[in-house]
Amino acid sequence: MKIRLFEKQDTEQVARLFHETVHEINIRNYSSAQIEAWAPDDIHFIDWEKRCFSRFTYVADDQGVIAGFAELEPNGHIDCFYCHKNYQRCGVGSQIYQVIEAKALDLEINHLFVEASITAKPFFQRMGFSTVKQQEVTCRGEIFINYVMEKLL
């Protein structure tokens, strides 16, 4: 498994991984209506490519298969942290997180923060994040519960 920066040819796999993970993993904690609002079926690959190049997007590459990905913004915000359904609880997320934390330290970022889903909250707790608050957010007309979490480096 190699953790590396996103490349253009990763776009389709990353977009599909996001969609499939939300639909097959996050469905455990959210309703079908919430899942469809979160990850609609009309994936726009061009939007994903632009998004991934606009921040530090790391992918876990397992011999050409993207096993997970996550994004670090220059302000310390971690966004879009997803592991493929077939790579859940295999250490992929931990490996991606270690690279993100190292990059944050290189950039002299001393505070990481995330809005973690109900599903992702335990992972971020294991990575040393603490919960700042529970919040409700709206996406495409659906209301979601997630958690603002932070970690001081």
TrEMBL record:
Residues 1-153 form the N-acetyltransferase domain. Pfam families: Acetyltransf_10. InterPro entries: Acyl_CoA_acyltransferase, GNAT_dom, N-acetyltrans/Recomb-assoc. CDD domains: NAT_SF (cd04301). It comes from the Bacteria. SUPFAM superfamilies: Acyl-CoA N-acyltransferases (Nat). PANTHER family: ACETYLTRANSFERASE, ACETYLTRANSFERASE (GNAT) FAMILY PROTEIN. This is GNAT family N-acetyltransferase. The lineage of its organism: Bacteria, Bacillati, Cyanobacteriota, Cyanophyceae, Oscillatoriophycideae.
